[in-house]
Structures are given as C-alpha cells and as structure tokens.
Amino acid sequence: MNDRNGPVVGILPAAGRGVRLGEPLPKAFVELDGRTMLDRSVEAMFASAVVDRVVIVAPPELAATPAARLVGEAFADRVSVVAGGAERADSVRAGLSAASGARFVLVHDAARALTPADLFVRVVDALRAGSDAVIPVLPVVDTVKSVDAEGAVTGTPDRSTLRAVQTPQGFDVALLERANRDAADATDDAGLVERSGQRVTTVAGDPLAFKITTPLDLVLARAVLASGVRTEKEM
Ligand code: CTP
Ligand code: MG
C-alpha cells in the first residue's frame, strides 16, 4: 500500500476576531452574498473532493454550536468544531488535536473565503506525489524593500526570487505537529516547518485565494461575487 494514500483532514482556523476588518462579528461569520466566509470555505474544501473531513476552529464562545448550524447540512456529518486559542498557532494546535487519523492536513484560513476548489487539489496532489510540506504562492507584483527600525531602506531583494504565500498549506501531519508544538505565533504554518529545517515546496496559488483582511478586501470579495467570476472552477 502506498503510504501517501491516507486521509486528508482540513483544519480551518476561524477563531480570529477580525480586528482589522472592523465588523461587529468575528470575521469568519461575516456574510458574503448571504453566506458566511466559514460556510463558503468548508464548501470549497469538500467541492475539491480531496478532503475527507474538516475541523473548524471557532471562537471559544461558538465552539459548542452544532456543525449543522455553522455549515451547509450536506457537510455537517464530516465536520467537527473545536475552540480556538489566543494566537493563530494556538488555534492550529487545537485543530491538530482534533485531526486524529489524518495522514495529511490542509491548514486553510477561513478568511480566504473565495479560494477555488482546484487549489486544494493542487496542494493534495503535491503531498501525494511526495512533498511533506506544500504552500501555494503567487509572484510578487510590487517591489519589496527591507527597512531598519527607523524605516530607512536597507535593501531591495530581487523580486524574481520572492513569492506571496497563501493557504491551503498542506503537511504531513506528524511534521506539522512537531513544528507547531513550541510555536509562540506564526502567520504562516510553513514558516514553523522551515525553522525545523524541513524542505517546503510550492504550487501555483490563485488570485481568488486572497485573504479578506481589511474593509477594502471585503468590497473586493463582494464585487467578485457580484461580477459572476467563477470561484468554483469546473473539476
Ligand atoms: N485565526 C484563528 N485564531 C486566532 C487568530 C486567527 O483561528 N487566534 C484565524 C482567523 O480566523 C483567520 C486566519 O486565522 O481565518 C487568518 O488570520 P487573520 O486574517 O489575521 O484573521 P483575524 O486574526 O481574525 O484578523 P485580525 O488580525 O485583523 O484581528
Ligand atoms: Mg490576526
């Protein structure tokens, strides 16, 4: 038996407050065209047909909510809900503890609510083909500078070597558990894996997998939906 054929569990960190978005609800519960970001993210994961189960990491006060009230009825029996922690890495740790039986995990921000299903497929294909840590990336469009504490420029990295990082990030489950164990905080799970000296590979990201962080991002997400651009590509 191929050891890379085992189950894939999606971990959906959705426990953030969305301070930068500034809406009254925790961000994952903000609606886009009548459906929450959380519900849209879960649907995209299952639409990919490469995810067996999903663990939603919810704000603690919502963690006792039955899955069927958080996501579409059709998915509820494949979804569990756990309470998140103070920092994103704490929430990922809580999700990992509920991902028993997983061979691979896909950690995916609920805030990337328009992520097309085929991006999950690309990441899982890379895991099945032999990678233990895989991240979707896009070329960087702006020139990027490094600066010192006063804001004075210290360097201009060659843009052709830089990539902007998205989710879903895919991992061998034991590798992410080890890397996450001592993490204080990380905006990017792969960063923890890199620090442990492991090789992290990349697949092509998708502009629709942008993270909804600020009010401008919310305007963009709603405009994308209103425009009829396909967020679910034909599988
Ligand atoms: N997240 C989480 N637990 C935390 C912090 C963040 O599960 N303690 C999740 C968020 O719900 C989001 C993803 O991690 O889906 C990416 O984080 P971010 O975009 O920073 O969301 P928030 O932390 O909610 O936003 P802000 O930083 O503006 O408060
Ligand atoms: Mg945050």
UniProtKB/TrEMBL annotation:
Q: Please name the top-level EC class of this enzyme.
A: transferase
Q: What's its catalytic activity? A: 2-C-methyl-D-erythritol 4-phosphate + CTP + H(+) = 4-CDP-2-C-methyl-D-erythritol + diphosphate
* Family statement drawn from the similarity comment of this UniProt entry: Belongs to the IspD/TarI cytidylyltransferase family. IspD subfamily.
Q: Where is this site: Transition state stabilizer?
A: R20, K27
Q: Which domain of life is it from?
A: Bacteria
Q: Name one GO biological process term.
A: isopentenyl diphosphate biosynthetic process, methylerythritol 4-phosphate pathway
Pfam families, alphabetized: IspD
Q: Does the keyword Transferase apply?
A: yes
Site features described as Positions MEP for the nucleophilic attack, chain residue numbers: R159, K211
Q: Which organism is it from?
A: Rhodococcus gordoniae
Name used for this protein in its record? 2-C-methyl-D-erythritol 4-phosphate cytidylyltransferase
- Any signal peptide, and if so, which residues? none
Which E.C. number(s) belong to this protein? Answer: 2.7.7.60
Q: Which UniProt keywords apply?
A: Isoprene biosynthesis, Nucleotidyltransferase, Transferase
Transport recorded as keyword: no
Functional description taken from the UniProt entry? Catalyzes the formation of 4-diphosphocytidyl-2-C-methyl-D-erythritol from CTP and 2-C-methyl-D-erythritol 4-phosphate (MEP).
Q: What is the lineage of its organism?
A: Bacteria, Bacillati, Actinomycetota, Actinomycetes, Mycobacteriales
The pathway that the record names for this protein is: Isoprenoid biosynthesis; isopentenyl diphosphate biosynthesis via DXP pathway; isopentenyl diphosphate from 1-deoxy-D-xylulose 5-phosphate: step 2/6
Alphabetized Gene3D superfamilies for the sequence: Spore Coat Polysaccharide Biosynthesis Protein SpsA, Chain A (3.90.550.10)
